[in-house]
Amino acid sequence: MLRDITLGQYYQTESVIHRLDPRVKLGGTLLYIISLFFFHNFLGYGVAAIFLAVVIRLSHVPFRFMVKGMKAILFLLLITVGFNLFLTPGTVLVSFWKLTITKEGVRLAVTMAIRLAMLIIGSSIMTLTTTPNNLTDGMEKMMKPLKTFHVPVHEVAMMMSIALRFIPILLEETDKIMKAQIARGADFESGNLIKRARALVPLLVPLFISAFRRANDLAMAMEARCYRGGEGRTKMKPLIYHRRDKIGYLCILIYLALGFFIGRL
Amino acid sequence: MSIILDHVNYVYGDGSALEVKALDDICLQIPDGQFVGIIGHTGSGKSTLVQHMNGLLRASSGHIYFNGEDIYDKDYDLKKLRGKVGLVFQYPEHQLFEIDVFTDVCFGPKNLGLDKKETELRAFDALRKVGLPVELYYQSPFELSGGQKRRVAIAGVLAMKPEVLILDEPTAGLDPKGRDEILGQIKELQQETGLTILLVSHSMEDVAEYVDRIIVMNRGSVLFDGLPKEVFSRYKELEAVGLAAPQVTYILHELKARGMDVDVNATTIGEAAESIQKALKSV
């Protein structure tokens, strides 16, 4: 049931994108997302789409697999499109009952849908091709300058990697407890809202207990290995830029230049 | 009155690179009142198999019949099936949630729609059957020991009065004493009530003494299916898939090879001892 969520999941395979330094991917994704909001015409989105298609192709992650993960947010996408379509003032195109569709509304809704879809696919490529550990390593290194302002960079990164690590475990646990309670006749799917909320108690109580138990075990295990924060801590696999990473940065810059040149005509 | 599995297949993660065939063309028949051991290595598909029997997982293809009815029929009541086929998961103590032991055991029968009196009667009965001391009935389940928690969880399923009881690794993480106690009680329960019991385990030692029939799973398919002594006599093949026969089998085969006239088909320590004594006397 819960295994179908592919958003934020890592897809194991061998590709150039997988091997890229996480900092390149993080920076690239960030710039890509920002660029999506700067285009004025549809040609710009064309450039972005081509760039995205090339990256997907290079990543060796099946497109079908990405789209499967998108289903979960299709609802959000539809709501956004709906609101933009019906609530934008301007030249009226069609009008029925209390709803009016304007020319500006259509344009906004379409741009919004394209932006959101490309934003989600773009950022999911990052998570699909980067292990959570690598991702937090990259973030920690990128945010290091903030340390001078007393931001606990290492601690934040550690918390994030633990949280990410626990998502699949807790999902699996939820699945297991749910099954166990269904085997005892629990019903999570029928009844009104209050009944359904109450039906969650047999799921949430064991889940919380197990989360606390795991947190306790993990804290104990970290302490047993003398973990004492980021001070003086070295990495087994330090992040070092290779030639491919420089090429990666170059590609992003070329995309940005091209996108802004064409997209803001 | 039985469970029949007819060419059941199950595939995890359909259509992605992570696709795994967890069950491969399983055909089985489990008659009423039988005590069956399902043995297999980690990842052999034994847990997946038993989750099909009460409809928690739906086969990718194939049919499952319970008491002659196809459980995948559109109008088949799966909730009722789950009352008839009780499934106790691995580490079942992780599913406890109520404020006291008794209320937790009541959860199952209450979900079946029984009235308060019948629910409580069944809960008492189930707790008695698993041998939990009465003074613990109104304690929080989280204050009990590991073995006691597990008994409460088993009682939680027993209280639904299933016709078939499936236990997935009921002895995992228990000490030898706790293990023998739980298995002994399950055997007693089976003799007392004539329940059909399926015991999932990775250890031959665990099941050898108790079951009438052993099903060995390997890589999602049934490798052997037969009487314990039949299955154990192929201990060389069992070793090849990472399993082992009980220790007595090895000792008896070794004695036989050294010229002692013992019965190599003995499966329990008692039988083996008897056979060795007999062989010694006849010398």
Largest interface: A-B, 26 and 28 residues
- Describe the sheet with the most strands of chain B: 6 strands, mixed
Mean pLDDT over the residues of chain A: 85
**What integer value in Å does the Rg of chain B equal?**
20 Å
Helix count, DSSP H or I runs of 4 or more residues of chain B: 11
Quaternary structure type: heterodimer
Question: What helical percentage do the residues of chain A reach?
Answer: 55-70%
Count of β-strands of chain A: 2
Cα radius of gyration of chain A in angstroms: 23 Å
Structural class of chain B: alpha/beta
Approximately how much beta-strand content do the residues of chain B carry? 15-25%
Distance between the termini of chain B: 49 Å
Question: What can you tell me about this protein's structure?
Answer:
The complex is a heterodimer of chains A (265) and B (283). Chain A has 10 helices and 2 strands. In chain A, helix 3 runs antiparallel to helix 10, helix 4 packs antiparallel against helix 5 and helix 6 runs antiparallel to helix 7. Chain A is flat and about 65 Å long. In chain A, strands 1-2 form a two-stranded antiparallel ribbon. Chain B has 283 residues and is of the alpha/beta class. Chain B has 11 helices and 10 strands. Chain B has a 6-stranded mixed sheet with strand order 6-7-8-3-9-10, sandwiched between helices. Classes of the chains: A mainly alpha (265), B alpha/beta (283).
